Amino acid sequence: MEAQQQLERWMTQYQNLIYSICYRLTGDYFDAEDLAQDTFLSAYRHLPDFDGENEKAWLCRIATNKCIDYLKRAGRRSVPTEDVYFSSLPDSRSSPEKEALEHEIQKRLFESCNQLEPPYRQAALDYYYYEMDINEIAAKTGKNKKTLQTQIYRAKGMLRVLLGKEVLRDA
Q1: pTM (2 d.p.)
Q2: Residue 28 and residue 38: Cα distance in Å, rounded?
Q3: Is the peptide bond before 119 cis (omega within 30 degrees of 0)?
Q4: Which backbone phi and psi does 55 adopt, to 5 degrees?
Q5: How many CB atoms lie within 10 A of CB 130?
Q6: CA separation for the pair 113, 64 (Å, rounded)
């Protein structure tokens, strides 16, 4: 069979299969179309190297390799924007203003929690100031989790009155 006829037969028989492989690997309609065409062109160019057995697997392998190569090149082509780059950097140091503000907020929270009556005082300190979770507080105090959740919920309301409109984490 002539090479051009072989290519036409493959395109007729395997066009949808090759396209679907390319689409699944790239997730892009237009890239998948281009890669499917590249697959058939590559198969045509390498037809003399083909042993004639299992053409479907051979074409699928070519398509997969084309997609993998494309994705590797695409990954190298992508350049992060300035915003993406700087937001991805770890915040290794905080400003003195930020530290002072954090310290002031923590101080106000501690003082406000200490103004509450028992049992709300300790529940609020443990949950909001020391940032313990319900399970940790229950293990520490031996109290029922539901009881602690109720105490934290009520302490939250009392702290909102004391602190103004600043939001506390939910119980």
Answers
A1: 0.45
A2: 15
A3: yes
A4: -60, -35
A5: 13
A6: 62
Per the listing, tokens 């409109």 go with 165
First-to-last C-alpha distance (Å) of the chain: 75
Burial 10-47 (b: 16+ CB within 10 A, else e): bbeebeeebbebbbebbeeeebbeebbbbbbeebeeee
As given in the structure block, the two tokens for residue 32 are: 């998948």
Distance CA 70, CA 122 (A): 59
Q: Determine the pLDDT at residue 165.
A: 56
Is residue 64 packed enough to be buried (19+ CB in 10 Å), middle (13-18) or exposed (0-12)? middle
Q: Torsions phi, psi of 128, nearest 5?
A: -90, -40
Residues 6+ apart with CB under 8 A from 169: 128
Angstrom distance (rounded) from CA 152 to CA 52: 74
Q: What is the mean pLDDT of each run of 10 residues along the chain (171 residues)?
A: 82 91 90 93 88 88 92 71 57 67 84 92 90 91 92 90 65 51
Q: Quote the tokens at residue 88.
A: 């991805």
